[in-house]
Write a structure and sequence with these properties.
The chain has twelve helices and eight strands. The protein is of the alpha/beta class and 313 residues long. An eight-stranded mixed β-sheet has the order 3-2-4-1-5-6-7-8, sandwiched between helices.
Length: 313
């Protein structure tokens, strides 16, 4: 029974976290729909404006409005409450395509390279991931390859101690590729199951950040065939459309196999998740909905949409 209660409280937490997004997205949509005596061009114009404001993106908005128009034309959508159902169905359809949990084989070394610009919550996400995997009985190691910022190494050290996992680090300004090389040898020797690598989000030197990341990637591939097994991009939901630009940059430059969207709680820009899903076609692995260790959650599309649409209960 505890499990059901736990699930319910997690769902409630997600609902609370999405309150501001729900407000900007659905309160306005409700007002438009309830205010429409009939569904006409003015209704669609208002809906379009609201959806764009809610950061769901122009591509999703355009498709949704087209779908609604078609159904109105075929007389399938004469009641305004059905508009909301179409919105919900469209979101579910888009988001379900991005739902792909990370599969970690039990007995091999699985490497996760965590990338993203500074300030997105990268190190915190690594700490929470380490906690998550350790709870599942895996042996986890963290690697401080953001060697350009002393604060980044210290922060990862604090998290690693907090969740009780070993950290491989070197002094500030050490070559990140060398840190990774050391970590791989150590992980192989110690039968580590999951290795999570923190990387720089910005370099002070003239070296291009992406070149530095590519070099790390090459070292990993050379030492472990198939590595990095996951390049997890951490995006901050509060940055809205900027998150999309960041995702495209990392995807095009070094490849991204999964996304963790942090800071969904307390932002009105949660709609950006729909935009990420529609425009990037990169699996959304995790969403962050709070400060607690367990607040990095596996992304489940039905749960997300339900939390967005359910006002109370």
């Amino acid at each position: 029974m505890g499990n059901d209660n736990e699930k319910k409280s997690l769902f409630d937490k997600l609902k609370v976290g999405l309150a501001k997004t729900r407000k900007i997205l659905l309160t306005d949509v409700d007002d438009i729909i309830l205010g429409s005596k009939q569904i006409d061009q003015a209704t669609f114009d208002e809906l379009e404006e609201t959806l764009i404001m809610a950061d769901v993106g122009p591509a999703f908005t355009y498709d949704l409005i087209e779908r609604m128009r078609e159904q109105v034309k075929r007389k399938e959508l004469d009641k305004s409450d059905l508009l909301k159902q179409v919105l919900r169905d469209s979101m579910t359809e888009i988001l379900s395509k991005s739902e792909a949990p990370l599969q970690i084989p039990k007995n091999d070394l699985f490497t996760i390279m965590v990338v993203g610009v500074n300030g997105t919550g990268k190190t915190t996400t690594i700490g929470k991931l380490a906690h998550r995997f350790k709870k599942k009985g895996m042996s986890v190691m963290t690697v401080a390859a953001d060697t350009f910022r002393a604060a980044a190494i210290e922060q990862l050290e604090v998290w690693s101690q907090r969740v009780g996992v070993p950290l491989i680090k070197q002094k500030t300004n050490a070559d990140p590729a060398a840190v990774i090389f050391d970590a791989i040898q150590s992980a192989k020797a110690g039968n580590t199951n999951v290795m999570i690598i923190d990387t720089a989000g910005r370099l002070h030197t003239k070296v291009n950040l992406m070149e530095e990341l590519k070099k790390m990637k090459r070292i990993m591939t050379r030492e472990i065939p198939g590595a990095p097994h996951e390049i997890l991009l951490v995006l901050d939901a509060t940055t809205g459309q900027n998150a999309i630009a960041q995702a495209k940059m990392f995807r095009d430059e070094i490849g991204v196999t999964g996304i963790a969207l942090t800071k969904l709680d307390g932002t009105s820009k949660g709609g950006v998740l729909i935009r990420i899903s529609k425009e990037l076609a990169i699996p959304i692995r995790y969403i962050g909905i709070g400060e607690d260790l367990d607040d990095l959650r596996r992304f489940r599309s039905d749960e997300f949409v339900s939390a967005l649409f359910e006002q109370n209960g």
